[in-house]
Amino acid sequence: MKIAFVFPGQGSQYVGMGREIYENYDVAREVFQEASRALGYDLAGLCFNGPKDELNKTFRTQPCILTVSIAICRVLLSRGIRPSVVAGHSLGEYSAIVAAESLSLSDAVILTEKRGLFMQEAVPEGKGLMAAVLGLDREQVDRICKSLQSGYASPANYNCPGQIVIAGEKDAVQEAIKLCDDAGAKKTIALAVSVPSHCKLMETASEKLTELLDITLLKNPVIPIVNNADAAFLHDSDSIKASLIRQLSYPLLWEDSIKTIADSGVTIYVEVGPGKVLSGLIKRIVSDVKIRNAEDMKSLESAVSLLSN
Question: Quick one: 20 and 118 in the same domain?
């Protein structure tokens, strides 16, 4: 029985996330305490009580989601559930790397806080945009982005068949939305995010992240990682560092990553952290697999029950 732990990214946060796990497991409380010491504020209080506006600030959201995810991951490990491979969606890749013991939790929450700040600084507010395109294939979306007259936009997330996110300059993304509608897209949705991730507008953020990673200890993972930028297995610290740098300004290959994991023989996927976004995407990418999420006591016990049999 081969198991994958997959970790959610930004957008999965909500006030109250992780509270039940924190209240019921010492190992989870220790994770929150370590993260709070590293960042210098009560991270558990922000996750459990908000306010929502503060939790939704990019530089707060990223370490908060990571901490909740790792708390749940360590509970699963303490219950005897160990993955064969880990992966994460965008920010979730940092959770995966912590789960694989390549990066310490303390370093990870600092990195993700800084990553959020670097991303916000890279593009002035109101100048960038992201949009989801439903019902077109990759070639159609790629072709539309290359044809734009009003500026730069490109595919940012290949999430699953028929769901692609584009990112770029606001006017160009709005032009792309119109062209995708004209090409027969089932739906196009401008996303409520302040930063156009996974495109070349993030290159300055990648450069700043490089400087931070140069002074951060990364070790070879004890569990294989499948990365976003290449949808490939990573087995050493150098490739992980290079992947984290490229990830910000390159398209996120989630559909390809799940196929890579499936091709390795994994038949059970556990979404470890807040929400069920990845569970929904995985259902549309691979068939004949079992999928669980673990975010509160009920879903955690359901996952443990399946994985213990």
Answer: yes
